[in-house]
Design goal:
23% strand, 4 strands, single chain, alpha+beta, Alpha-Beta Plaits
């Protein structure tokens, strides 16, 4: 994993990478249609939907992000990663 993170850094695409603490340390905040907030403390039972960590990459295309993700999964092992695009803020 250290080599992959190093490769991402050398390629100039890695902006951040962090692991998340267990869901027992977190909370979910929900807002319903009536304007009421509900706060639920972890742990959360549906572990298949938990986020264990993230990497923020700045790449030229979605296919490039997918290729980096494939490399990550090859190192991390069996599992699933989600590629999400971010809104890009215009320069002021």
């Amino acid at each position: 994993m250290g080599k992959l993170i190093g490769d991402m850094h050398k390629a100039g695409v890695l902006l951040a990478a962090e692991g998340c603490l267990p869901s027992s340390k977190g909370s979910r905040v929900r807002l319903d249609g009536g304007g009421k907030f509900t706060v639920t403390d972890g742990p959360f039972p549906e572990t298949k939907e938990l986020i264990a960590g993230f990497a923020l990459l700045q790449v030229k295309s979605k296919p490039e992000a997918i290729e980096w993700t494939k490399r990550f999964l090859t190192v991390a092992g069996e599992g699933e990663s989600e590629v999400r695009l971010l809104h890009d803020m215009p320069a002021a």
